[in-house]
Amino acid sequence: MRSKSINRRDFIKTGATGAAWASVLSSTPAGSADSKALRLGFIGTGSRGRSLMHTLLAIPGVRFPALCDINLENLQLAQAMVEKSGQPKPEVYYRDEEAFQQLLYREDLDAVLIATPWDWHARMAVQSMRCGKYTAVEVPAALSLQECWDLVDTFEETQVPCMMLENWSFRRDNLAVLNMIRKGLLGEIVYCHAAHSHDCVDHWFFTPDGQMRWGGRFLLDYNRDQYPTHSMGPVFGWMDLGYGDYFDTISSVATRSLGVNAYFKRKFGPDHPNARLTYRQGDIVTSTVKTKKGNTLIINYDMQLPRPYDNRWTIQGTEGIYNEQRDSVYLTRVSPKYHEWEPFPPYQDRYDHIWWRTHGAKALQAGHGGTDYLELLLFLEAVREKSAPPISIYDSVLMSMVIPLSGLSIEKGGVPVECPDFTRGKWKTNKPAFALEG
């Protein structure tokens, strides 16, 4: 199968509300054998994969003919989830690390979702596109510049869409801010700060009892911003990156690596094996991006030191500023008091995005702040309509390329490194396409 060429702007302008799609879905009972039901293949059935499956099973008109994972216990748990929903028992693939190929070559799948460890994402997504399957891949979409090019080249060759599942792009507050920016309330944007500040040592990189998970080995082998896509989720839309502006250079520096060792010494004692390892990954990475327009974007990685969760978004323009930590805005032409913050929630209500006005109630019932439900619903809409997903492959690699570029800059002593243009110049004339309301 080779999909037809897609006009993203026309699709999003006419289909973003999802009203017609919601009507179609609600008319198709869960577990129905209706030929219009979307048939999804799922690769990676660990905790994140099963969380996405749980959300998908709450959306009518979705079926799971095939699942793949080399962990048989996870696979059986996912299989049981599907059966419990009233659907037939999915066929499973688990023989070895190449078992996903068997799933991709099936002819009865409309789309494939990938929720495996990071270093498999790009390879699986490339193969999925080559097999003609609409593809949704968990974050990040790629870990190296070559993988970024592989994704872009494959899309341009096959015209089969691939979307990275960056759910923070779909947060209610972030979409309201996007509407405010597009209506000119912040003026001309010149600066943004974004962060992923989330202490993940005891559940993401290691188990609570101190065993290394698959993510932990990245801390041993690399020193870079390991996880920039949550930072970047709303930013590419706020700053029109890929749509009139683009990355020019990035310079990155990293602190010493002390957090993981300190955690193990504190909780398990100095003789624990993981307390004595040498971790390459600095505790905090700060990257400064200069854009083609001359704007500045600061991106922080902070996942190894004790702290509450925070994203620390700030977006600033010639007419005002939004600050996520304060949950506040200041707008020169609107705010009642000179140089004083005012609460953001009333602005969120006023500029609430149509996606949230249409689907917000159901989205919030699905957990994770409703973002997973919304991004998956919109991806499924694109699959059914043979249209462009809300996040393009170019958006996906823009957010992902911070990983290899930050590592390269750190290795070179923090000097600015040039950012490849994965759009091949199309950013100069591309019009904003993400989350357009009309």
Can you walk me through this structure?
- This protein has 438 residues and is α/β, with parallel strands linked by helices.
- The chain contains 18 helices and 15 strands.
- The strands form two sheets. Strands 14-13-12-11-7-10-9-8-15 form a nine-stranded mixed beta sheet. Strands 3-2-1-4-5-6 form a six-stranded parallel beta sheet, with helices on both faces.
- Helix 6 runs parallel beside helix 7 and helix 15 crosses helix 16.
- It is globular and about 65 Å long.
Number of domains: 2
> How many helix segments?
18
SS content category: alpha/beta
Beta percentage is: 15-25%
At the first level of CATH, the class of the largest domain is Alpha Beta
Shape: globular
Give the number of DSSP strands.
15
Q: Can you tell me the CATH topology of the largest domain?
A: Dihydrodipicolinate Reductase, domain 2
Rounded to an integer in angstroms, the radius of gyration calculated over CA atoms is 22 Å
Determine the oligomeric state from the structure.
Answer: single chain
Descriptive key words:
438 residues, alpha/beta, Rossmann fold, Dihydrodipicolinate Reductase, domain 2, 2 domains, nine-stranded mixed beta sheet, six-stranded parallel beta sheet, 18 helices, globular, disordered N terminus
